[in-house]
Structure formats: C-alpha cells, structure tokens
Amino acid sequence: MAVFPGRGVCRLTVAAESPELLGAAPALQGGVIVSSRSEVLSRLLGHLREGQSLSTAMQHHPEAFPDLYVATVRASERTGDMPEALQRYIVFHEKLADLKKKIVSAAIYPVLLMSVGAIVTLFLLGYVVPRFAMVFADSGRDPEGLSSLLFAWGGFINNHAAGLAIGVALGVAGLVGLFSLPPVRAAVARAAWRVPALGERIRLVFLARFYRTTGMLLRAGIPLKTTLGMVADILPVALRAGLLQAVADIEQGRPFSQAAERGGLTTPVALRMIAVGERSGQLGDMMEAVATFYDEEINRLVDMLYMPIFELAGNFQ
User: Fold this and answer.
1) CA dist., res. 54 & res. 22, Å (int)
2) 62-85: buried (b, 16+ CB within 10 Å) or exposed (e) per residue?
3) pLDDT digits 0-9 by tens, 294-316
C-alpha cells in the first residue's frame, strides 16, 4: 500500500496491489493498517461487491484517489492492461516527486545561507563593531570615511537591538502572510515568468510535467482530446490559454504537433519528437520520451545550482 501526499491530506493509492485487490478482499480488509486507510479500503471493497467497476468505486473517494489515477484505471479497464497502466502511474508519480524534492532541496540552501549570513552580519554590527569602536575611541583617534559610517550603524543596532528584533520578526511574519495570499503568489509567479532566463526554466519544468502526464494518459488508452482536458489544471495560467488554443485547433482537424506549436506548448526538440510520434502511432511513448529528456536537463540545471551551494556551505564547517 503506497501513500502519496496531497494538499493537506494523504492521497491513498492501491496501484501496486490493485491486480490482487479483487481476489484478496477478505485478507486485505482484515489486515492491520492505518485506520483512515482501512476505512477507505473497506468502502472500496463494498463498492466492488456491489458490482461496480474499480474506477467507479475509486471515484467515490476523491480525497484518496487523484483524478488522473482514476482516469488511468478506467482506461486500463477497457484495454485490459491494468497492472502495466498502474505501474506507469507509480513511475509517473515518483518522477514528479523526485523532481519536486530536488528543486526544494536546491532552494533550501540559498535561503539557509542568506539567513545565517544575515544573523552573522547583525551580530558583527550590533556586538563586535560597538566594542571595537570603544577601543578605537580610547586610542584618541577619530574614525574617518567608511569607518565612521560602520561605527554609526553598529551603535544604532546596539542601542535599538530589541526594537529591531521585533521589527524583523514582524516583517518576516508579514512576508509569510503576504505570500500565503493567492493573488500575491500569482503576481510573484508572473514576475518570475518575465525574467528571461528564469522564465524559460520555469516553462520547461511545467512543459516536462505536461508531456509526462499527457504521455501516461495516452498510453493508458485515453483519447487525446479527453487527455488534454484533464491536464489543463496542471499548467499555469501562462500556458493554459495555449492549451485551449491547441484543443480548438485539434477540433478543426490540425495534428497535435501543429496545434501544440501554435499554442506555445513545444520546444524545437519536443516538436520534432512529437511529430515522429504522430507518424509512428506512438504519441504517448514519444511524449514520455520528451518528458524524460527535459527532466534530465532540469536535473542537470538543479545539480549545477545545488552542488556549488553545497560545497560553499561545506567550506563554513
């Protein structure tokens, strides 16, 4: 039994055991598992005993089974390759989780270093500099230029340490509260997209996720138009309009490669590979191949950012 974390709840999937689930209901129901999972599993088995299909039974529990997973199960019920389809979903979920983990790990170190650097700087200015200024004053010499400015800043921080600490704490709390607001996060995301180098990398991350999800659903036997409607929610607003345009072009008879290009959902490499997949009838496989290609590129980029920061952090130890 595998558990995938969702938005505030644990999303339960029986992907690894679904083929055995249908024939092992009593044993699974009597097994020792977490009570919340046991309740979901008991209800699921009850729906199956009523004659419902596995996908329909799962659809009754959206808090436990993501829509993409239910769609994969429903398609595999028609094609008869449920074990393979569920294994693809597991691989898909693990790849997304691994990429997210790497990006978060790479982002933690800069924040950690900046926080430690700020604390050390404030300590030097508020504690060390004022004492050095006293020694300097006892020598009878007057500070000049930048030295006088440094001593003034150090004295100010030392004399108002409590007020500054409260101000910093309130400022951090305010920023955290501000960034918890969806409009603010959306504005920050739009600003990040407008940064040339950063915006292109963000676009690649979302496109790779789009390619992998689309490929997985196509390989599960879900029609292209239905697949594109299901993956719309995983794209940011900046790309969602292009997806709607692509769907409209497909309805008018354009091939997916041309529609995706017109909607801004391709790169030069992806466009060529998608076109090959269309001609060979292996669009799902080719979409996953494109996703793997860009996942590796994103991983290399994350490693390029992560390793220098990690080595720099090690130099302080």
Assistant:
1) 9
2) eebbbebbbbbbbbbbeeebbeeb
3) 888 887 777 776 655 555 545 54
pTM of the model: 0.62
Scan for tokens 């996942």, then name that residue: 295
The residue among 181, 180, 186 whose CA lies nearest residue 238 is 186
For 40-69, the three-class secondary structure string (H helix, E strand, C coil) is: HHHHHHHHHHCCCCHHHHHHCCCCCCCHHH
Say whether 5 sits in a helix, a strand or coil: strand
Asked whether 17 and 44 are in contact (CB, 8 A), the reply is no
290 exposure class (CB count in 10 Å sphere: 0-12, 13-18, 19+)? buried
Other Cβ atoms less than 10 A from the Cβ of 300: the count is 10
CA distance 266 to 121: 46
Average pLDDT over residues 276-289: 91
Residue 148's CB: how many other CB atoms inside 10 A?
A: 12
Asked if residues 263 and 191 have their Cβ atoms less than 8 Å apart, the reply is no
**Cα–chain center distance at 181:** 18
Q: Phi and psi at residue 15, in whole multiples of 5°? A: -55, -45
Q: What angle do CA 256, 260, 261 make, to 5 degrees?
A: 120
The token pair that represents 230 in the structure block:
């299901």
Three-state DSSP class for 160?
coil
Give the C-alpha separation, 135 to 10, whole Å: 60
Q: What is the pLDDT of residue 258?
A: 93
Q: Has residue 14 got a pLDDT over 60? A: no
Query: What's the one-letter identity of residue 150?
Result: L
Q: Which residues contact 199 (CB under 8 A, 6 or more apart)?
A: 192, 193
Nearest CA to 7 out of 87, 58, 66, 61 is that of: 66
CA distance 202 to 210: 12
Distance CA 33, CA 249 (A): 49
d(CA 315, CA 53): 58
